[in-house]
Amino acid sequence: MKRQAIRSRSNQKPLSGIRVLVGRARHQAGALSAELRKLGATVLEIPFIEIRRPSSFKALDATLRNLTDYDWLILTSVNGVDAIWDRLAKLRLRKDNLKRLRIAAIGPATRRAIEQHGIKVDVVPKEYVAESVVRSLRRRVRGKCVLLVRAKVARDVIPRELRKAGAHVDVVEAYETVVPQSSRERLQNALRNPRRRPHVVTFTSSSTVKNFVELLRARGQRDLELDGILTASIGPVTSSTLREFDLRVDIAAKEFTIPGLVEAIARYLGL
After folding, report:
1. Which of the listed residues 144, 178, 212 is the one where a domain comes to its end?
2. Nearest 5°: phi and psi at 138?
3. How far apart are CA 200 and CA 42, in angstroms?
């Protein structure tokens, strides 16, 4: 979509007249949608990702009962934070053992989620990607025991590189991400309907990219479906995944956060 095609407006709010498709998980879409609506955008929420409990909490529960074995805890998302505190409550375990750990969090949202439980966060990397976590921790974890709590399927950069740095790293799955099949028809209908067809589609993780492609794959018309639609990526890993699927990266956030993504969309449109 050419910027000039949607800039011929004299509305007060900068994104008035812009339709933005938000594909975050249903329970997490609110923050991005709210920021876009503040700028006047019309938001269509169709989740590309669904967060589910793992098939078993056995490994996570065993780890939470033995937190004294660890020196560091790394949390990569709010979903991991929520899973830990949910299991602590169900197991009737106190959070005191968490307080003795040094904790690293990817991103301000994850940090806030941890601090809301009264736990101090020691490290938040400058960039909210795995590579930055490694740079922040490499010199601190030699000879230490590190617990990484994350999704069932995730990049192996953190455990691989920290082990190279001399850390003992245990990886525990706290949740899994799946394709929400109920979104398939809604997404395809939205892309076909001129009145609902988005000007911009937002991608906030590699999983949202992969699942978006999967949701369109049934029709086999991905290129045609996206003709004239801008893609907006939250960060370099997500952008790389878009390119892996031969999708453009039209808009890329400079700060890898939800506010950074919204700012990038408004800046790109020149409004």
Report:
1. 178
2. -50, -45
3. 11
Q: From CA 225, how far away is CA 190, in angstroms rounded?
A: 10
In Å, how far are 46, 71, 188, 190 from 106, measured between CA atoms? 25, 18, 33, 33
Pairwise pLDDT comparison (15 vs 155), residue with the higher score? 15
pLDDT at 160 > cutoff 50: yes
Confidence (pTM): 0.78
**Distance, CA of 178 to CA of 207 (rounded, Å):** 9
**Distance (Å, whole) CA 236 – CA 244:** 12
Cα Dmax for the chain: 61
Task: Give the domain range for residue 262.
Answer: 4-49+180-268
Say if residues 93 and 84 touch (Cβ distance below 8 Å): no
pLDDT bucket at 221, cuts 50 / 70 / 90: low
The span from the CA of 259 to the CA of 235, in Å, is 12
Which CATH number covers residue 110? 3.40.50.10090
Task: Please enumerate in sequence order all residues whose Cβ is within 8 A of that of 161, keeping only pairs 6 or more positions apart, or say none.
Answer: 134, 138
The DSSP call for residue 194 is T
Q: Kindly report the number of other CB atoms within 10 A of residue 36's CB atom.
A: 23
Beta pairing partners, 175: 151
| 57 & 94 share domain | yes
Q: Which tokens sit at 184?
A: 């398939």
Identify residue 250 by its one-letter amino acid code.
Answer: D
Interior angle at CA 94, CA 128 and CA 171, nearest 5: 40
The helix (H) or strand (E) run that includes residue 35 is: helix 29-38
